[in-house]
Amino acid sequence: MKKWIHDKRAQVSDKDRSKRDMMTRAARPFLASTVVITRGEKGAEEVLLGYRSRKHDFMPEVFVYPGGRVDRADSFAPYCGEIDRRTARILGAALPPARVRACLLAGLRETFEETGLIIGHRAPSPRNMNDPGWDGFHKAGYLPSINRLSVFGRATTPPYRPKRFDTWFFHTHLTDAEAAQPVSDSVELLDIRWAPLATADALKMHVITEAMIGELRKYLKADAPPARVPFSRWHRGGFKYDAYPGSAKT
Question: In the chain, where does DSSP find H-type helix?
Fold first, then answer.
């Protein structure tokens, strides 16, 4: 696989650099999930993106995909469907089954919280979970559909940043009816828009967001989903770009 990640330490703000200098060791990455959502005809897809405001301490003032950290409630949220075998196998090489499921569910919850978009199946409302994201999802009359997500990438934040994530990138393509759902700005994301996949990387993005645009284009053009996914991580003083699962320790 081609190496597309470079050392971006110059992008670290003075504030983040100061925070990291006060730490005695690298922060442990939080498990995180990002859902890259497309709509439209094959070859003319659009991708859903939103702008993170300057108040965020992680990746501010850039366009990103919906997503975020896996929360405790994601381990107990009811759902419908089953994880596709390929996605389960790839994530299962790094995570126990319960965490695999929570990772997918987190992506669907964050998508709803940040954009209002529901990727789910109509079902009776379950018990109140006392979680704003899931209670809103369920009150709309839906359960999240974990079978709709397919993994296509992974990236870990480098250790020179004070906040780190181990992020899995999932893809789903909306039906015409689903694509007709309104999307709206939120506390997390502003200026939410559908951008042409072919030119989306012209928007202001972090390097990993831009890289995953390219990986998604290749993923969608492939005759079949690949057995492994691109994986960006920091290794021995520099970024390493390889495939996961691989033979090397990660």
Answer: 14-21, 85-92, 97-115, 132-139, 176-179, 207-221
